[in-house]
Design brief:
This protein is about 70% helix and about 0% strand. It has about 725 residues and is mainly alpha-helical.
Length: about 725
């Protein structure tokens, strides 16, 4: 305390130091004494004495206490007045004690102007596999820092004894597959550029372009390479300008007319050479980029196909590229359609008039173990199409037959599964129909059916082919096989064609057989697919059978189709009944439809509107009004506006003031009933049918009251009571 605030040269400091020395005679194992003593000397800027005291403390104290001493020691040598050499020697010892402090040492070396030693220290860290950054930096970031140090200070790196090329190449080898090597390649080239080894730098750039594996690394190296060539051209242009100015000042030089010397044209030749190099580099960029992508994945078929297009106009390069591609790509790992690559290779030869080599290529392509059978089938189709383009039609057919033959045991996939491929069979059947005899075509179709790979379209094509050759019964047998093979929805088109062809062929000659077919079709069809069959069945009965049977079919159809088709089916039923039996016959159908529980309220409302229009057209005004009254309970004014508009127009045309008011009263009552949350008993749709009963049957009470009493009768009173 007595020395605090005094000058470092004051005698009190010496007295205090002497006191510490006496204390250490007996307490040299006490770390606190050593720490206070060292801090005193460091604060008084006695560098040598402070360093010696710290060294004595490290020798006297056990190793477990050294960390406390080093904390004071490092803080002391980090002060600006401590000489650099002293600080660095202390730090080298400290790094041996605590290797994790190596990054701090590197930072100190950079601050103190020792970049070469900093690079060497950082290289030693990276050379240690177990080194872990206390600053949470990745090894890639540390490699980047080392590259920046070396390229920025190449001379100092050499003086430090670093083998720059070997060090950076080891980093490139470490990060080459993971990406990030582009920065190291560019740094190595920059090192040689700063060392004026331009040819060596150019070699490094070329090696980097041939070795990087990511597009990002390629872009970095390529841009650095282009910038290097541009800087060389710029330097040569500036040098030429300076030489020209100097020559002008000297009076034009001393070369006689007609005299030629190489040294007089050296700069121009160098400039032309560098310009040619830069142009060549820019022209090679697409090819080099393609190389990078193929190094990433040599099984990328899409990239190989794009690479072929790069050499368009150079047939030899394209052939070499195709050859390299088909040799390199592994079928099991191919990304894209390998068969398409083989096909393009064959078409290239064909386009240049060499069909022989095209056949050789496709023959080899058929022996490749593709991942899928479809790829192999595509290649066989391409081979057959090649023969067709060469006008060898029988050769194309023979190729397809050979591909689809039964192979011996031991043949591996996909060749073993080719005989069941639908794509190739479809192509082969087309050729058979065009080129082969009737018996051969029939045999081919039969084999497809025996293999159980036929599709509904193949069945339809086979049946159509038999029909064209007048084998009608055979055609119908094929339809029978088709409907036995497939289920809905696949069999839908087969049934539709079968029924249409049979009716067109026999008409009413085999009516019972036709009826059996329609019944089978209806039994197999789901409700949502049965409407067309019912309509066609009804037309058959109308044209070749009995009208009564036709009405029965339509009646079954109205009940058997899906809910969404029922109203349409009933409307068709009504229309056909009107044509066959007259309008009065339709009353029974309307009543049946309205009384059934098969229709929705909206559909019943629409049928009631049509029913009312029918009665109005027949002059039965009271019956039409009774229908409107009975169906009113189903017509919410907010959703059934069309119903109320029809009733309004009807009353305007045929009613009076009293019936119009009754209509408005009912509308209000219905609106109130729909708005109320209370449960009410509404008239059933059967009331509409009962209110419009025929003259031969007595009318129900509700309909009779609606037709004779303007008040609307008890039914409307009950409706008002429920709504109010």
């Amino acid at each position: 305390v007595a020395a605090r605030g005094l000058s470092p040269d004051d005698a009190a400091h010496e007295a205090l130091a002497a006191c510490f020395e006496r204390a250490l005679v007996t307490m040299h194992k006490m770390p606190r004494i050593w720490l206070h003593y060292a801090q005193l000397l460091a604060s008084s800027r006695r560098v040598t004495r402070a360093r010696r005291v710290c060294d004595r403390a490290l020798m006297s104290l056990p190793a477990t206490q050294h960390e406390r001493v080093w904390e004071v020691y490092i803080r002391f040598v980090g002060q600006k007045h401590v000489p650099t050499d002293t600080a660095l020697r202390v730090w080298r010892r400290y790094v041996r004690f605590d290797p994790a402090a190596a990054e701090d040492f590197v930072e100190l070396l950079e601050r103190r102007g020792r970049p070469g030693e900093a690079a060497a220290q950082l290289a030693r860290c990276l050379d240690t596999d177990k080194f872990m950054s206390v600053r949470n930096r990745s090894r890639h970031e540390m490699w980047g820092q080392l590259t920046d140090l070396i390229t920025a200070h190449p001379a100092e790196a050499k003086e430090a004894g670093l083998k720059v090329d070997a060090i950076l190449r080891s980093g490139i080898a470490t990060h080459g597959d993971k990406g990030g090597a582009g920065r190291l390649w560019a740094g190595l080239a920059d090192y040689y550029i700063r060392s004026a080894a331009f040819d060596r730098a150019r070699d490094v750039f070329e090696e980097a372009l041939a070795g990087v594996r990511t597009v990002a690394d390629f872009s970095l190296v390529f841009d650095a390479y282009a910038q290097f060539e541009e800087s060389m051209i710029t330097a040569l242009l500036e040098a030429q300008g300076e030489d020209g100015a100097a020559a002008g000042a000297n009076g034009g030089g001393g070369v006689g007319e007609g005299e030629w010397r190489l040294e007089n044209y050296g700069p121009e030749l160098d400039l032309d050479l560098h310009m040619a190099r830069l142009e060549s580099l820019m022209d090679r960029r697409p090819e080099l980029l393609s190389d990078v992508r193929l190094r990433q994945n040599p099984n990328n078929v899409h990239e190989w196909r794009k690479r072929v297009k790069l050499f368009e106009g150079d047939g030899a390069r394209q052939v070499r590229t195709y050859t390299q591609a088909v040799k390199t790509v592994e079928p099991a790992k191919a990304v894209g359609q390998l068969g398409a690559l083989w096909a393009e290779f064959a078409k290239f030869y064909e386009a240049h008039g060499d069909a022989t080599n095209a056949r050789v290529v496709l023959k080899k392509a058929t022996q490749v173990k593709y991942r899928t059978v479809d790829e192999l089938a595509t290649v066989w189709c391409e081979a057959a199409e090649l023969e067709l383009r060469q006008k060898d039609y029988q050769g194309a057919l023979a190729l397809c037959r050979g591909a689809l033959r039964d192979l011996a045991e031991g043949i591996q996939y996909p060749q073993s599964a080719l005989r069941k491929n639908l794509k190739l069979w479809g192509f082969c059947l087309d050729l058979e129909e065009s080129l082969a005899s009737f018996g051969e075509v029939r045999k081919a179709y039969e084999r497809v059916l025996d293999l159980r790979i036929a599709t509904p379209q193949i069945v339809l094509n086979f049946a159509a082919y038999m029909e064209e050759h007048k084998y009608f019964e055979e055609s119908f047998k094929l339809f029978e096989r088709g409907v036995a093979l497939f289920r809905y929805p696949q069999v839908k088109e087969i049934w539709a064609t079968y029924l249409r062809k049979f009716v067109a062929r026999y008409g009413g000659a085999k009516l019972e057989r036709a009826r059996d077919l329609f019944e089978q079709a209806l039994a197999a069809a789901p409700a949502d697919e049965s409407r067309p069959i019912y309509l066609e069945y009804g037309q058959l009965e109308e044209k070749h059978g009995l009208a009564k049977h036709a009405m029965g079919v339509y009646r079954r159809g109205a009940r058997g189709v899906a809910e969404k088709d029922r109203r349409g089916m009933y409307e068709h039923y009504i229309a056909r009944a009107a044509d066959l039996y007259g309008a009065t016959k339709t009353r029974e159908i309307y009543e049946e439809a309205i009384e059934s529980d098969l229709l929705t309220e909206a559909d019943v409302r629409q049928l009631c509107r049509r029913y009312a229009q029918l009665e109005k057209s027949l002059g039965e005004i009271d019956r039409a009004r009774a229908i409107f009254v009975s169906a009113a309970s189903l017509a919410d004014p907010s959703g059934g506006a069309e119903f109320w508009a029809d009733w309004n127009a009807f009353e305007v045309a045929h009613g009076n003031e009293e019936t119009f008011r009754e209509m408005l009263r009912i509308k209000r009552s219905v609106s109130t009933a729909y708005a109320s949350t209370a449960v009410m008993t509404a008239p059933t749709p059967a009331d509409a049918a009962k209110g419009a009963a025929g003259a031969s049957a007595p009318a129900p009470a509700a309909a009779t009251q609606a037709a004779t009493a303007p008040s609307g009768g008890d039914a409307m009173a009950a409706l008002e009571a429920a709504g109010g």
